Structures are given as structure tokens and as C-alpha cells.
Amino acid sequence: MGVPMGAEPKAIGRFEIEGVLGRGAMGVVYLARDPVIGRKVALKTLVLPEGADEAEEFRIRFLREAQAAGILNHPGIVTVYDAGVDEATGLSYIAMEFVEGKSLRDLMRQGYPFSYSDVARIGAALAVALDYAHAKGVVHRDIKPANILITDQGAVKITDFGVARLATSSLTTTGQFIGTPNYMSPEQVTGSPVDGRSDLFSLGVVLFEL
């Protein structure tokens, strides 16, 4: 459930804002409703940094998230429905599947007692979803507990392709690294080219942590 709104926009694009799901350094994730079909969505917005060049790079990366995730259609990956720029607020946004559940990070912080069978089931589900994404030419680059959702029914889903790299993209070049350091593969840390094996390294770190 979203928390009550403060001075939040009433709508972004065609989506009606119902609450706030979370806030981060990059922006706010809202609980919203698509009035056309009555579907609840998680609406991720981007707060652009100061400086025109940096702001444009962030906007490109944000829209790349929609491009990367938008070509993926898999039960183990959060579905992206729409993306755009709201004319009234100037906010870039991505509308995605609203998942009722908790992140793996939240469960770990609450001390959830994962059994060996839990770890095996979660690991297998994530491996299948990543294999699908890699076959489509998409590398996530930021596999970590916060980006793994466990639904109320126990299904496992990967979210936040915010730093995903299309295999054909030239936006991220050698010498740059993107991701969360504690879960990065050695090649990510050194800024070397990466492929799907980097995601598998990060997955291994997550499973070891469980």
C-alpha cells in the first residue's frame, strides 16, 4: 500500500496518483491508477540533477530502463507498461507492474528465516528470469536484494532495470562502472565490458548472503 500523499502531484501523464511507495536518490515511486483500464501501477519518476549535460544523461538512462525492460515479457520480471514525459511537471516516468509483496532486502532486514529450500527456489527462479533477459540481449547490472521482489503468493520477480544495458547500446562505455559495489562482479568494479555472467556473479553474492 502507498503511504498518504503530502504535496504530491495529483496526476502524472494519464496516471492518477494514489500514494507514495518509496523515495530514492533518483526520484519517487508512486502508487498510481491507469484510468483507461482501471489498473494499479507503480509509477517511477526521475528527479534530474542540476547541470544540463548530467541531466540529459540521466534522462537517457531512465528512458533506457523502459526500453530495456519493455522488450521483456517474463513472469519473473516486473512488466513495464508505459513511459514518457509529463508535460505539466516535466517529470520523466515509467509505469510498471504494481507488485504486492516485499523486497528481499526488506525480508532480510526483518530477519526472515530463509531455509535451504527457500534459497534454492529463489535462486532457480532468478536464474531462469536472468537467462531469459540475457537471451534478449539485456544485462541487468544491479542484481541485489532491493531489486528482487517476493510477491504475497511467493513468486519471485526482478525489478529496476535502471542501470540495465542493452547489449547493442553504446551509452555505457569501457572505463565506467554502474551498479551497487557490494554485489558487483570484478569486471564491473574495474569498468571493463560486462555480459550476463556479471549478473550471475551478483546473484551468487545475493544467495550467499541469504
Automatic annotation (TrEMBL):
GO molecular function (one): ATP binding
Annotated residues that bind ATP are located at: 44
Sorted UniProt keywords: ATP-binding, Kinase, Nucleotide-binding, Serine/threonine-protein kinase, Transferase
Cite the Protein kinase domain residue spans from the record.
Answer: 15-210
Q: Which InterPro entries match?
A: Kinase-like_dom_sf, Prot_kinase_dom, Protein_kinase_ATP_BS, Ser/Thr_kinase_AS
Pfam families, sorted: Pkinase
| UniProt keyword annotation of ATP-binding present | yes
Entry protein name:
Serine/threonine protein kinase
Task: Supply the source organism for this entry.
Answer: Thermoanaerobaculum aquaticum
Phylogenetic placement of the source organism:
Bacteria, Pseudomonadati, Acidobacteriota, Thermoanaerobaculia, Thermoanaerobaculales
